[in-house]
Amino acid sequence: MEPPKKLITRILEFAFMLALSAFLINTAAYWILEVWPILLAIAIIFTVAIICFRIWRHKHDDLGKW
Q1: How far does CA 57 lie from the centroid of its chain?
Q2: pLDDT digits (tens, 9 = 90+) for 29-66
Q3: E-strand spans in 1-66?
């Protein structure tokens, strides 16, 4: 077993992890703000394609026809 860590070591590890987490969250937020229009355009294209396909499939569906 490892000996317990000193208090100062735990505080420094926590401070480093907190700073790293803040940096990564900040970087991710700026990246999302930079690419959100592209992601929105892709989502709209996929949504329109799915809706068009479902309308086309409903018009060409032979189920229930005699």
Answers
A1: 31
A2: 999 999 999 999 999 999 999 999 998 888 887 664 54
A3: none
- Residue 9 Cα distances to 13, 15, 16, 30, 39, angstroms: 6, 10, 11, 32, 42
How far apart are the C-alpha atoms of 41 and 46, rounded to whole Å? Answer: 9
CA distance 44 to 38: 10
pLDDT per residue over 3-16, tens digit each? 778 999 999 999 99
| Integer angstrom CA distances of residue 45 from 8, 9, 14 | 54, 52, 44
pTM: 0.55
Residue bearing tokens 């907190």 = 18
